[in-house]
Design brief:
The protein has 385 residues and is α/β, with parallel strands linked by helices. It folds into 2 domains: 133 residues, Aspartate Aminotransferase, domain 1, CATH 3.90.1150.10; 242 residues, Type I PLP-dependent aspartate aminotransferase-like (Major domain) (Aspartate Aminotransferase, domain 2, 3-Layer(aba) Sandwich). The chain is 41% helix and 12% strand. A 7-stranded mixed sheet has the order 2-8-7-6-5-3-4, sandwiched between helices. Strands 9-10-12 form a 3-stranded antiparallel sheet. A two-stranded parallel ribbon has the order 1-11. The longest helix is centred in the last third of the chain and has 25 residues. It is globular.
Length: 385
Amino acid sequence: MFQPAYFDHNATTPLAPAVLAAMLPWLESQFGNASSRHEYGRAARRAIDAARQQVAAAVNAHPTEIVFTSGGSESNNLFLKGAAAAVRPGRLAISAIEHPCVRQPAAQLARQGWQVQQVAVDGNGVVDPAAYAEALLAKPQLISLMTANNETGVVQDIAALAGAAKVGGGWFHSDAVQAFGKLPLDFRALNAAGVHALTLSAHKANGPQGAAALVLDKRVELLPLIAGGGHERGLRSGTENVSAIVGFGAAAELAAQRVAEVPVRLLAMRAQLEAGLTALGARIFGGAVERLPNTTYFAFPAIDGETLVGKLDREGFAVASGAACSSADPEPSHVLRAMGVGPEIARGAVRVSLGAGNSEFEIDQFINALQVTVGRLQGLTAVAV
């Protein structure tokens, strides 16, 4: 009997058994506050230190460059608002396809006197070289460009983009939440190229929700969003979520072990999926450029994406109509609009994001269900017309 298939790994991933095993003691018998001086507290501190080393090792950073936070949104806000607070209002450059947790802080900074420039992308979702060169002429003090897009999966050449910005002397940040665990990330190499900060999140790589990190070049001056007891080098005060941080460390170690092999299988399944989608007449967004190996973003003409997602859910397939964090927004995807996709096709967008636990059998079942569902919806559309 066919079991429901989870195809929404860009929203969140299942907790790996090894990660849960690492967390359980800190949810049961181990309960110390890592700031306490007794053995309970010292044990918690040792666990956090070990997790910091695991996360650092996974992205070739130094443990002192890891600042733990509660999520990717907090990490992005910490960099943008923290760096902005340390200097006079100036110019901030972001791409037109950033996640809302970059776009919204940028909008807040604009109300505080910052000049925010959105860098255009081309029809494939890649940062436009001419638009980027023009943005760099203004020598922005802060730049934030995501490594891989959460909707399309399109990957940017972050090292080259950061290298081009070096001459301007601004701080360069990249939201690497979706890339973590799916692509190799080397902070030492990226830092040498001109990247000063990366955002990572545990729950996108089979870790727990509620744990993330800002990987930060220590030359960057940030003012904290949360003041208090001075935790995380004074950059993020608050009693640490020890169990989630321990889980993040275990997930990071697991991701580092798998990053060379898992993408190969994901790419094979994605190719199988996209062959089926193409045969059914779907349009695949960003299909001509490098994307995350697990991500396919597609649409069928004259079919509403939310409607299709709902019907597929009833058939046992969990997919998304866009970014999970902005699912309440009824407007067409800002990412697709930035790519020049018209609203009539953008409203039909559906995202499938695969994980290591998915199978070729599930892909076949999905294509079969999609063929029937799309046929019915197209029939209804034809009758309505």
